[in-house]
Amino acid sequence: MLDNPSSAKPFVSWALGLSRSGLTDLPEIGLAHEAAAAALYRLMKRAQKAGFKLSIASGYRDYERQLAIFNAKMRGERPVYADSGVLLSKQSLGSRDWLHAILRYSALPGTSRHHWGTDFDIWDPTAVPSGYVLQLQPSEYCGDGPFAQLSSWLTTLILQDDAEGFYRPYTGESGGVAPELWHLSHRPTAKLFQPLMESASLIHVWSGQAQHLGQSSDCETLAGLQEVESEHDAIMDQYVRSYWV
Ligand SMILES: [Zn+2]
Predict the structure, then answer these.
(1) Which stretches of 17-173 are DSSP H helices?
(2) 3-state helix vs strand vs coil in the chain, percent to 5
(3) Which member of 45, 98, 127, 193 lies 3.0 to 4.6 Å from 93 by CB, making a disulfide possible if both were Cys?
(4) pTM, full prediction
(5) Is 3 inside a domain boundary?
(6) Cα(182) to centroid of ligand 1, in Å?
(7) How close is the Cα of 92 to the center of ligand 1, in Å?
């Protein structure tokens, strides 16, 4: 189906997290793109042989969920941190700096790779005591961190292009999204969604006016829409397009 250009419309809504109709619900993984999930099962099996229980901390996330996270941060109802780990205050930053501080760690709804069912945040629950609260912090995935060994096992496979098609889009090498060692993306399927996102009118979606793409009519608008709109293209370049393959 993905090869058929005439079926592009449903996939725009899928790319933006507005439709789940192309996704499959699978054990241990949840909603996912079928081919990405098949590759993930293969990677999990190999991890098990290497002594890890590669598990999903966060997989598919829809537009509304991402909108709720983003809007809560924009309004200062959810903590926003600097790279140093220091808690930021909305009052002490200008509106532009506040927006960019949020974009370091949270995607604009409609632009999250988690909308596709091809990207997964991973961890190993057997490497930590039960009741451990996962932070998804770099310190957990390097040095003495509990998932450092799993992470370096994955790094080796990725460098050898032997990770069942998975790679890490967020390495921290550009000035956009902060490094995320836990975020794996299935390149062969993820790259199919990129042109679909480009063609869609995200401004319409952020205004809550994309019913033609399956958006619910009572969908909230994006908090800070004006701020985002004023530098939409630059934001897309810095936080979205620079991670495309
Ligand atoms: Zn992620």
Answers:
(1) 34-49, 63-74, 95-103, 138-141, 148-159
(2) 45, 10, 45
(3) 98
(4) 0.92
(5) no
(6) 7
(7) 28
Q: Which residues contact 132 (CB under 8 A, 6 or more apart)?
A: 125, 146
Domain count, the chain: 1
231 HSE (CA, 13 A, CB side): 13
**Position 1 in a domain:** no
* Ligand 1 geometric centre to CA of 2 (Å): 23
Torsion of CA 216, 210, 65, 193, to 10 degrees: 130
Domain, as residue range, for 216: 9-243
Tell me how far apart the alpha carbons of residues 110 and 144 are, in angstroms, rounded to a whole number: 35
Which DSSP string do the residues of 39-59 spell out, in sequence order?
A: HHHHHHHHHHHTT---EEEE-
**6 Cα–ligand 1 center, Å:** 30
Would 4 be classed as within a structural domain? no
Is beta strand 55-58 parallel, antiparallel or unpaired with respect to 166-167? unpaired
What CATH number did the domain enclosing 81 receive?
3.30.1380.10
pLDDT tens column, 185-241: 999 999 999 888 876 689 999 999 889 888 988 889 999 999 999 999 999 999 998
Q: Which protein residues have their CB within 5 A of the ion that is ligand 1?
A: 121, 183
